[in-house]
Amino acid sequence: MPLRTVPASTATPIGSHNVEQTSETAAGRRTGAPGLDGRERDRLGARAAEAARRLDREGIVAVALTWVDVSGITRTKTVPVERLEHAAAWGVGMSPVFDVFLLDDSIVSGGYIGGPTGDLRLHPALDRLVPMAALPGWAHAPALRYAQDGTAHPLDTRALLRRETDRLAERGWAVKAAFEIEWAVSDGGGDAFSPACKGPAYGMTRVTELAGYLRDVLKALKATGVKVVQLHPEYAAGQYEVSVAAEDPVGAADTAVLVRETIRAVTMEHGMAASFSPKVEADSVGNGAHVHLSLWRENAADGAANAMAGGPGPYGMTAAGEAFTAGILRRLPALLAVGAPSVASYLRLIPSHWAGAYACWGLENREAALRFVTGAEGEHATAANLEVKCLDAAANPYLLLAALLAAGRDGLGADLKLPEPCDVDPAGLAEEERAARGIAPLPASLAESVAAFEADAVLREALGEAVTDTVSAVRRGEIALLDGATPEQVAAATRWRH
After folding, report:
1. Tally of domains within the chain
2. Are 338 and 442 in contact (CB under 8 A)?
3. CA distance linking residue 84 with residue 69, whole number of Å
4. Span 451-470, pLDDT tens digits
5. For residue 369, is it within any domain?
6. Torsion-angle region of residue 202: left (phi > 0), alpha (psi -120 to 50) or beta?
7. Which of 52, 191, 296, 401 shows the smallest number of beta carbons within 10 Å?
8. CATH code, domain with 119
9. Is residue 279 part of a domain?
10. Does residue 127 fall inside a structural domain?
11. Rounded distance, CA 372 to CA 311, Å?
């Protein structure tokens, strides 16, 4: 590999996430992922052996262990089902250098990762092991990453997200999260994009044109245990969106990966191709990957209570819900380095395109970066949530959620208050009025968001030096890779990578 030097079933259903004791033992509650000792390896091997027998009876021959790299691409190592026991106990080898791959598979070097030496071990997260209905004979498990001595790898973003959920839990808080997945379907071969349906935006015609395909997407997701809330045609040519049920943050990120790979497989089975790129075509609306978040606290008398509803704050928020939201709003420019992490992201993140290009919030305002959703009258207590709109599917979902939770946690700690909400398209306001209302445009380039990210002490502390340095190295590598490229060239380079 070149070194580029540049600045169904009986499986555990997705959506009923259980704590996986591989990386979430008591020690893991404090550190994110503890070391593996002999007793733990024996326990994992025994559990995996039982799972392998069940999978074999279901006709499963291979298990894909997946992780998402810093550039947002899902990578994998695969084991035959009869090797699952060994993989659970001892892991599967991989090079640490995958964390500094760029979207074209060239390699940069950071202060902590780079070069051909070293080895990590991938261990399947057995609580998320599930047969893939869209890939008969295959099962999927997110990978937990350890060093050879059994200590946690600092670039394991799944363990990082677990640590952030634990830090909130120590304060008595939990978060429910879900991703909206947008994708565009092409019926052409090669690198060009040719929309597979011709009907109008949001039109029933688009469903009719690809009814069999969409039926199979829904069937495959259901058989894999994914709880779909809705599916609909979107605005851009050939574009659709699926929304799934909220769950704990680690489960939500696992589900986001599984949904995309299921959609990709079903699309290929139908002789088409799916693009999750932030900008499929330079002159069209891109694909977002909006995140919905709600903050919850256990109430001894009434059970879990949603901090986004039932309070005296804006639109019924509690003080905690407001502070959590304000923490995310404050850090949006820096958060874009993990949530809109590609050069192509900034072709999508433009005003008056429902992408959330301004750092503001508002009730049901689809032009605000943060859209507050109350739900229908009568269901506010369960439905109220925050939608973060300025994000796309080039993001590593684990890293993104970890950063969002860290920003929200900082808001809670500082008891932040929200500014006045924005109830119009901020692009339609005069610049002087936007300034008076504290509404600033979000970064217009990846370089701007990386600079904000590198200067953000809260995210640096939460993510750690190794992650911060590696994110910066990969982002600057992509900037150099696409330096001087036209929007059409950027879209073409990114179209099929995520």
Report:
1. 1
2. no
3. 23
4. 999 999 999 999 999 999 99
5. no
6. left
7. 191
8. 3.10.20.70
9. no
10. yes
11. 14
User: Which amino acid type is present at position 44?
Assistant: L
The pair of structure tokens assigned to 297 is 């606290």
* 90 in any annotated domain: yes
Counted residue by residue, the chain has a size of 498
Provide Rg for the chain, Cα atoms. 22
Full residue range of the structural domain in which residue 121 is found = 40-154
